[in-house]
Design brief:
This protein is mainly α. It folds into three domains: 58 residues, Winged helix-like DNA-binding domain superfamily/Winged helix DNA-binding domain (Arc Repressor Mutant, subunit A), CATH 1.10.10; 39 residues; 55 residues, Arc Repressor Mutant, subunit A, CATH 1.10.10. The protein has nine helices and no strands. Helix 1 packs across helix 3, helix 4 runs antiparallel to helix 5 and helix 7 crosses helix 9. The longest helix is centred in the N-terminal third of the chain and has 23 residues.
Length: 161
């Protein structure tokens, strides 16, 4: 009987913790699994609870990937960084919102980020500054060709919108 009570207690705790976490923000299944394991809950109980929540529509990796990607794009991150962060969170497919953006959109985002951070001064004569800005944009997750095109834009080229 004690084993049954312990199992019910674990299930109740897993359900309440997972629901509380989901009420704050979207989570991937992988993230919730890790957070529930940190609370010393059993793997089979975690799987059962998360399966139930997926059936109820409370847990959805596709929805999480879409919401997370849009937030990161709005914060000025490029496609490589967003995809890498999604993989760390257990999402191994590219969400639709990333597929919708063409390379020109990513280049425009990189230009806007560069303008906000550094301005759009001409970098043709300042190799050190060009490298510094390129490193920044690369860390933000833009591809080499996107970074290269963003660095070619200067104030004299006119607005980038």
């Amino acid at each position: 009987m004690a084993k049954q009570e312990n199992s019910d207690d674990q299930e109740y705790k897993a359900r309440s913790v997972a629901l509380r976490l989901l009420a704050r923000r979207e989570h991937s299944r992988h993230e919730l699994t890790l957070k529930l394991r940190q609370r010393k809950l059993d793997g089979p109980v975690i799987s059962m609870v998360l399966d139930d929540y997926e059936r109820e529509g409370w847990l959805d990796d596709n929805r999480f990937a879409d919401v997370y990607s849009r937030q990161r794009i709005d914060l000025g991150y490029g496609p490589l960084r967003v995809l890498a962060e999604l993989q760390q969170r257990g999402i191994h497919q590219s969400p639709g919102c990333l597929e919708e953006l063409a390379d020109a959109d990513w280049i425009r985002n990189a230009i806007l980020l560069r303008e906000k951070r550094f301005g759009l001064s001409d970098l043709s004569d300042d190799w050190d500054e060009k490298v510094r800005q390129a490193r920044f944009l690369t860390r933000r997750g833009f591809s080499a060709s996107q970074v290269e095109q963003a660095l070619e834009v200067s104030e004299s080229d006119g607005p980038c919108t």
